[in-house]
Write a structure and sequence with these properties.
The complex is a heterodimer of chains A (about 625) and B (about 750). Chain A has 12 helices and 30 strands. In chain A, the strands form 3 sheets. Chain A has a 12-stranded mixed barrel with strand order 12-13-16-19-20-23-24-22-21-18-17-14. A 4-stranded antiparallel sheet of chain A has the order 27-28-29-30. In chain A, strand 25 (about 395-405) and strand 26 (about 410-420) form a beta hairpin. The two termini of chain A are about 60 Å apart. Helix content of chain B is about 20%, strand content about 40%. The two termini of chain B are about 40 Å apart. The chains are: A alpha+beta (about 625), B alpha+beta (about 750). Chains A and B meet through strand 15, helix 6, helix 12, strand 29 and strand 30 of A and helix 2, helix 5, helix 7, strand 5 and strand 6 of B.
């Protein structure tokens, strides 16, 4: 966001630069002003003497402490303004000057600006001044229809004057008007915080003094505007905080925990001291903004819609905005390593500005709709119901994954919800209630909802919950995932699941270093495949030892079975041929005490089972699809 | 025919290997694979080839398959093209024969080098450098990674950075037995394991919201001398709730939970307070006492993950809930301390079930068979998760490799059992909080057994048994009452005739009552990934001791109970298995089996159902079932045909096999089996079968090779064995190794035994 400030500052300075450079030079406060300007790295003057490549400049400077005076000769020919980001070449002609002590400069006579071209990298476009006149009228400087042109040739007109006050603080009374002015046109580039195109209509009046300019009027972003803002990347220390180990040098790092006092409480956002928001900033309804939430992955928020905001600049030159921006249209684009999804903005989303733009509060809701069957979601948690209701669980329904984007622009926080759209009237009440009850229950369980959202986004389906999932204690890993962007959320859930997975998969390979390994795309994909495999594996259950027909899962036995290196005798493995477990394949070993009449022998076999569970005997005779009790 | 196929393959291979080049897109090269050069830049003590192998795994993408330097599978990929239907023949061939080409442009050399470097760092080989260079050769590119490796860093000190919190004090207390040890090599996995270990401990001390990710480890590798200091601390920015220990405020149970109803409110109305548990069971489906036993903790206790897991496991294992879950809600108790409200949501499964089952099996002694059964279950007969099972079955089994394929057994039977998820002993209540709930089973069974052409037997069983697990890897099984009553009938004329000639056969059809008690204990290595794995099973079977005392029996079949002579014996056996993982996924597996049965007073041999046998597909694979002994006895054809078992009272068996992964789902094996059985008495097989002092001279030895196909759920194997030592030969001629003549048809017919069976032999 600093970049934005830079642009605004540059903008303001540039508007005046053409005139003020000379004025201030004549004015004699060049030392201050130059220092000030060069501190801000906007300009620095080359010497008055001719450089090799340019015609001799007749403007002589004796800067700083050398002679403490300035000798201005008429017919200034060349001034080169260079800066970090700005390059301007000015061919200026000024008529006559006078020699005065530096402390009491005076001026008169108009200053002609023949051809001035100003190019600013961060604006990506050039501004031109052709044959315009500055009218120094001591102690004021007047602009009379001073015109600056943009590259397509639209004009920006400055009227008014700078007058009175003391040397460091001049009074201002300037009017700037323009229409369809191409203020900015930058292609995306490295180190560029803002890019895109800005076409503005401006009707601004600047009063007050140069220390505290008062802005008033209208600033209108026309429909040709299309801007992209890049939010600063998240501090990498946060990422490393998730890692297992950090390498340090004890001598240079203090590890002793300083008692964390309440200093963490955030400083109140204080709007600029002299902030006034008398500039009305309007945004055309066709203007689109793109906010890059996660520069690493490329997750962004695209917004489009009209806005009316109030804005202003404080004494330090910072831009302040106030008002509510409620876009009509927009979406959140997820650009994770392995999937792309678009969440469409829901009505009622807004960004509330009240101070620095980066501190704007987001209240954005967006939705991604997936058609999937609720079967895995409801899973085993539906008690005894009719078979036809159970079969209706298989039907595909639209589910909305709601993405909430809250927090400030500089520090966004996401959260999720899963909803069944109300409009769906085709499904039975029982099914609808069951789904809504489950979703209601999920909302109290962050890790649960995170897991389901991950499954919906990554695999387009719900994940069946197992009773054994609840062995993991608090499951802090899944409730404590990254919330800065959807991509980071996904990566973080994946990491968590991976750490569990890899314990099984590669335990004998020492690849606990999955965190470092998972950096490459290919590995991430591999992980994804493994993940979906493991989710599908819930049809397999294994028990060791004597079991009494209870289908519980013995994790270690399961792992050993999956490795294909069966070692334990007396293992019973069940594989559900149908998801409801009606058809089952079972491999078993019976021990010596169960095999009758054969002496000390064991029996190994494979069985096919058909099971029908029922509460009342008549349920056995219901046919599929038969509507009972309706 | 075979030659034709071979030539075809050679031809195809020749075509395929030269034809790939033309398919490679312009500007692309095929990726040949990675080559790693490890340069030891110091005294690296670890095995470099092993490291190299591990590093190889870090190279991505995986290289294609090559044969004779040619990527033959790619050729198929291009030739077969894009199948039109996803399940057609072409798609099938494409799946089976080809693989997608990997191009050099898909290889990210720098990222891979970085991964390899990270991998080495994670193993403590700091400052290792990895540089990747591509080498072009024809239409292929390979990558050569040069790895400079320095000695592994060792841990010098492990320190906790103290912040005086209770949490940290707990951690420090638990420092003993840590995974990180001074002098050990630095390994990232150890640090993670140590964190997990501490996390587990912390969670058992009330810190519900803690997570292993909240422990930070710092490593200072700047101290020199190839040593590293490990500093551990608790992260500063962990959530506030992770810093406190929680007590249990309330426990609510919803045993009738279903999503059809909205989530139950947390208000206490409608709840029954039973033994400090709040239970809402409006339809009285379950007795509250069920939860009293299943839930191992009560309000007021400090939260512990052990309680949480134990309780959940016990609830799942009750078998009446198809879904059980818990929820912990943060709250404040009356004293204002952090506390948790616990909710158990239990979705009952349907109460009854009807099940039809058909199975195919193989028994250790080479019988193959099939059985069909119909089972009926009621999972909650008395509202306390009691499982009632009624089962009817019928089956048939045959012994194919047997010299008499007329031996076919038929079985039909019924069984009724009731299984309780607790110790059930009348008038005694045993309180226990094990991870797995114990089970008590009472079983009645009847089986009709028919041995074709000979006789039928009626078998009646009554069993009262307990099973409980002591941890996940120790299981006890105690059956204080195990009654079996057997009587024979329906003798065929053939059999009667045989009895006339050989009255010893009567032993087959003697009525018998076994008044037994059995106990067995099983132990196995918990972690299936451990290099060395053990399995142990010990059993003790005592029968007729009380009946013997009461009746004062001292002679064979002298005393009777209910008109039937009872068996009197003590039998103990152990089964030890040891598995050792070898490189290249080879497994070496061993089994030792020792069984001793001592019939006394009222019995002179063990009942047939309890005898030890040898030979056959899983015990001694170079000898057919029934074709080997007890002792040095060689069973005659007559014995083989007419005796139900050719078994003994003592057994010694040792097996060893090396399992070798071959390709796809096939694996091979090389095995060595040895052992024999002996009798106590001479009644059946004379002196030759009796256990003597020099019994070790009568041990049979066999060896062989096998192929196994792992069909996922079950494994099918074909083991081909032949004898090395035949105990029935005269003492000095028993070793027959020198007589092996694979080329001799006669030898092959007499000695090779093909054992086909399901599942591993041991």
């Amino acid at each position: 966001m600093d970049q934005l400030m830079l642009v605004v500052q540059t903008c303001v300075v540039m508007v005046f630069l053409n005139s003020f450079i000379f004025i201030n030079a004549c004015y004699g406060q060049h030392k201050n002003i130059l220092q000030e300007l060069s501190n801000k790295k906007f300009i620095s003057f080359h010497s008055s003497k001719a450089s090799d490549s340019l015609p001799p400049a007749l403007l002589n400077y004796f800067l700083y402490d050398s002679l403490r005076h300035i000798n201005i000769v008429s017919n200034v020919n060349v001034i080169t303004v260079t800066g970090n980001k700005a390059q301007a070449a000015a061919f200026v002609s000024a008529s006559s000057g006078r020699q005065k002590k530096i402390f009491r400069p005076e001026w008169s006579r108009p200053l002609m600006l023949d051809t001035v071209k100003i190019s600013l990298k961060s604006f990506g476009t050039s501004f031109f001044v052709y044959g315009q006149k500055l009218i120094p009228d001591y102690p004021a400087i007047s602009f009379k229809h001073f015109v600056i042109l943009d590259s397509p040739g639209h004009s920006l007109t400055i009227n008014g004057k700078v007058y009175g006050g003391d040397n460091t603080n001049k009074n201002l009374d300037i009017k700037i008007t323009t229409k369809d002015f191409l203020l900015m046109n930058v292609a995306s580039a490295v180190n560029q915080r803002v890019f895109g195109k800005a076409v503005v209509d401006v009707d601004l009046r600047i009063t007050g003094n140069s220390n505290l300019p008062l802005l008033e009027g209208n600033f209108y972003l026309t429909d040709e505007t299309d801007l992209t803002f890049i939010l600063p990347e998240k501090n990498s220390s946060e990422a490393s905080a998730k890692s297992v180990v950090q390498f340090i040098d004890q001598d240079s790092v203090v590890l002793k925990a300083t008692k964390t006092t309440a200093s963490a409480t955030k400083k109140e956002i204080q709007p600029g001291k002299y902030f006034n928001e008398s500039v009305q900033i309007r945004v055309d309804k066709n203007v689109s903004f793109k906010i890059l939430i996660d520069p690493n992955s490329g997750d962004y928020l695209q917004l489009k819609g009209a806005a009316k905001l109030n804005g202003g600049i404080d004494s330090t030159g910072k831009l302040f905005l106030k008002g509510l921006y409620a876009p009509d249209f927009g979406y959140y684009e997820l650009n994770s390593q392995f999937l792309n999804k678009r969440f469409n903005l829901l009505p009622g989303s807004s960004i509330e500005f009240n101070g620095l733009p980066v501190d704007a509060k987001m209240n954005i809701r967006s939705v991604y709709t997936i058609n999937t069957s609720p079967k895995n979601l409801l899973g085993n948690e539906v008690g005894s119901v009719d078979r036809h209701i159970v079969s209706s669980f298989n039907q595909e329904l639209p589910f909305n994954v709601i993405l909430f984007l809250k927090g400030t622009l500089s520090n966004p926080a996401i959260s999720f919800d899963i909803q069944l759209p109300d409009s769906n009237n085709t499904i039975s009440k029982v099914l609808k209630n069951s789904i809504n009850n489950k979703l209601l229950q999920l909302r109290t369980d962050i890790s649960g909802i995170n897991k389901q959202v991950f499954a919906l986004l990554a695999m387009d389906r719900f994940v069946g919950e197992q009773s054994t999932d609840f062995f993991k204690g608090n499951d802090a890993g899944l409730s404590d995932v990254a919330q800065e962007s959807v991509s980071m959320f996904l990566a973080s859930v994946l990491d968590h699941l991976a750490s569990d997975l890899f314990k099984g998969i590669n335990a004998d390979l020492n690849l606990t270093s999955y965190q470092d390994f998972a950096t490459s795309d290919a590995l991430q994909q591999e992980l994804n495949v493994e993940l979906s495999k493991s989710f599908l594996n819930d049809r397999l259950s294994v028990t060791t030892g004597k079991n009494f027909g209870i289908e519980s899962i013995d994790a270690s036995a399961k792992a050993s079975q999956q490795k294909g290196s069966r070692f334990l005798p007396a293992v019973t493995t069940n594989y559900k041929l149908s998801a409801d477990g009606k058809y089952l394949l079972r491999s078993y070993t019976k021990n010596q005490f169960e095999v009758i009449l054969d002496g000390y022998v064991m029996e190994t076999g494979l069985a096919f089972l058909v099971t029908m569970d029922y509460e009342k005997f008549k349920e056995l005779f219901w046919k599929n699809g038969e509507k009972a009790g309706k | 025919m075979f030659r034709f196929v071979l030539y075809c393959f050679i031809l195809l291979f020749a075509i395929s290997s030269c034809g790939v080049q033309k398919y490679v897109p312009a500007g692309e090269k095929l990726y040949r694979g990675a080559d790693i050069q490890l340069i030891n830049q110091g005294k690296v003590t670890a095995s470099l080839p092993l490291l190299k192998k591990q590093l190889k795994l870090a190279t991505k993408p995986a290289a294609m398959k090559f044969a004779l330097g040619k990527p033959y599978k790619i050729w198929w990929w291009y030739v077969l093209g894009q199948p039109k239907r996803p399940k057609g023949t072409r798609a099938f061939l494409k799946n089976k024969l080809s693989e997608a080409p990997v191009f050099a442009s898909q290889v990210n050399v720098d990222a891979t080098a970085k991964n390899m470097q990270d991998f080495l760092t994670n193993l403590g080989y700091f400052h290792a450098t990895v540089k990747g260079d591509t080498v072009n050769k024809g239409y292929m590119t390979s990558v050569r990674y040069t790895v400079h490796i320095f000695p592994q860093y060792k841990i010098k000190n492990i320190t906790w950075v103290n912040d005086d919190s209770d949490l940290l004090k707990l951690m420090q207390e638990k420092q003993e037995g840590g995974i990180l040890k001074r002098g050990n090599g630095y390994r990232l996995s150890d640090i993670q394991a140590e964190k997990d270990r501490l996390d587990l401990y912390i969670k058992s001390k009330g810190y519900y919201y803690f997570s292993s990710a909240y422990i930070m480890a710092y490593a200072d590798s700047t101290i020199g001398n190839n040593e590293v200091d490990i500093l551990l601390s608790i992260k500063k920015n962990i959530p506030e709730n992770a810093r406190h220990a929680y007590t249990i405020n309330s426990i609510s149970v919803f045993p009738n939970y279903t999503l059809l109803q909205p989530p139950p409110g947390t208000s206490k109305t409608g709840m029954t307070n039973f033994d400090e548990l709040l239970i809402r069971d409006t339809v009285h489906k379950f007795k509250p006492a069920l939860f009293k036993d299943a839930i191992t903790y009560r309000p007021g206790k400090m939260y512990s993950s052990i309680d949480q897991n134990t309780t959940l496991n016990r609830l799942i294992n009750l078998g009446v809930f198809k879904f059980a879950k818990n929820r912990y809600e943060q709250t404040i108790d009356t004293a204002g301390n952090p506390a948790l409200n616990v909710f158990y949501y239990l979705t009952p499964t349907k109460r009854k079930s009807l099940q039809a089952e058909i199975n195919g099996f193989s028994k250790q002694h080479s019988f193959l068979g099939t059985q069909a059964s119909l089972n009926w279950r009621n999972r909650n007969v008395f509202k306390g998760a009691e499982l009632l099972l009624i089962k009817g079955y019928g089956g048939i089994e045959m012994s194919f490799p047997d010299s008499f394929n007329r031996i076919t057994n038929f079985r039909a039977g019924v069984e009724a059992s009731i299984n309780l998820p607790r110790f059930y002993i009348p008038f005694i209540h045993i309180k226990e909080y094990n991870l797995y709930p114990p089970h008590t089973r009472l079983l009645f069974g009847y089986e009709l057994f028919r041995k074709q052409y000979f006789y039928s037997k009626n078998i009646y069983r009554l069993q009262y048994e307990f099973v409980w697990k002591q941890g996940s890897n120790k299981e006890h099984w105690l059956s204080p009452i195990a009654l079996t009553y057997i009587n024979a009938g329906k003798l065929t004329d053939t059999f009667r005739k045989e009895i006339f000639y050989n009255p010893a056969l009567l032993i087959n059809i003697n009525s018998e009552l076994i008044l037994g008690s059995t106990y067995s204990f099983t132990y196995n290595t918990t972690n299936p990934f451990e290099k060395r794995q053990w399995y142990f099973k010990g059993s003790l079977d005592i029968a007729g001791n009380i009946a013997g005392l009461v009746t004062g029996a001292n002679e064979t079949r002298q005393k009777k109970v209910g008109g039937t002579p009872f068996a009197q014996y003590i039998k103990a056996d152990i089964d030890v298995r040891y598995k050792r993982k070898l490189p290249n996924n080879f497994d070496w597996i061993n089994q030792l089996l020792i069984g001793v049965g001592i019939p006394y007073n009222n019995s002179n041999i063990l009942p047939f159902t309890k005898q030890y046998v040898i030979g056959g597909s899983a015990m001694l694979r170079g000898f057919r079932w029934r074709e080997i002994g007890p002792g040095s006895y060689l069973p005659t054809l007559y014995d083989q045909r007419l005796f139900q078992l050719v078994g003994g009272d003592y057994k010694l068996q040792f097996n060893s096999e090396l399992r070798i992964p071959l390709f796809a789902k096939f694996s091979g094996t090389v095995f060595l089996d040895m052992g024999n059985v002996w009798t106590k008495d001479t009644i059946l097989f004379g002196k030759a079968g009796q256990l003597k002092k020099d019994f070790y001279k009568e041990i049979a030895v066999a060896a062989g090779l096998g192929v196994r196909f792992d069909a996922g759920l079950i494994l099918i194997r074909a083991d081909l064995g032949f004898p090395l030592r035949k105990p029935y030969l005269p003492n000095v001629q028993r070793w027959v190794v020198s007589k092996i003549e694979l080329a001799d048809r006669n030898w092959r017919q007499q000695n090779l035994v093909l054992n086909i069976a399901l599942g591993y032999p041991f």
